[in-house]
Amino acid sequence: MSADLSTWEPKTELGRMVKEGKIRTIDEIFANNYVIKEPEIVDYLLPGLKHELLNINIVQRQTHAGERSQFQVVVAVGSEDGYVGIGVGKARQVRQAVEKAIKDAKLNIIPVRRGCGSWKCSCEEPHSVPFVVEGKSGSVRVRVIPAPKGAGLVAGGVAKVVLRLAGIRDAWTQTRGDTRTTLNFAKAVYAALYNTYRFKL
Fold first, then answer.
1. CATH class for domain 50-111?
2. What stretches of the chain adopt beta strand conformation (E)?
3. Contacts of 146 by beta carbon, 8 Å cutoff, 6+ apart
4. What is the pLDDT of residues 105-154, one digit of tens each?
5. Where are the domains of the chain?
6. For the segment 44-83, what is each residue's pLDDT rounded down to a tens digit?
7. What is the pTM of this model?
8. Mind giving me the DSSP string for 111-131?
9. What angle (nearest 5°) sits at the alpha carbon of residue 168, between those of residues 42 and 89?
């Protein structure tokens, strides 16, 4: 669900710099600590981004007219090559909620450092995480551990999707807390991947 970039009129300075060709890669945005406020920027610099639906819930809120029901959708987007994002969208219709969640996920996209941190492998290919990383959201704690080549993703369904979209093919995970809460589980994995850039290598 990418936007029509030919008719895109940037609303931010960063958007104008991207459309004018002053910024040509998404790495330049992260290197300069720019904040992405338009999803079209991500569409422009990362074409072919994939998305997967993680969860759909019906949420209700009390208004003066009574209870109002909406769909809450959790979506993960990724390039399968070192970039991933998590987004949440709410709307009366599922399609609109999915579109909002995809836009939100694009605004939350982060780079993921990959490597071969397993002492059993040491192949120097970027197929896993470079070292053990941890993430937390709500009651959920996730630990992502480097695995040797061919081990695959030993993780729960939600974590497996997020890791695959980030471009990680081999990893072990340890989890604590209520992993049935899909949003917190996804955010914990996202936080762990964010921490791959916590140290300078």
1. alpha beta
2. 50-63, 66-78, 83-91, 110-111, 133-137, 140-146, 153-154, 171-176
3. 115, 116, 117, 118, 121, 128, 129, 130, 131, 132, 170, 171, 172
4. 999 999 999 999 888 887 888 999 999 999 999 999 999 999 999 999 99
5. 5-45, 50-111, 133-197
6. 999 889 999 999 999 888 778 788 889 999 999 999 999 9
7. 0.90
8. E---B---TTT----SSB-SS
9. 45
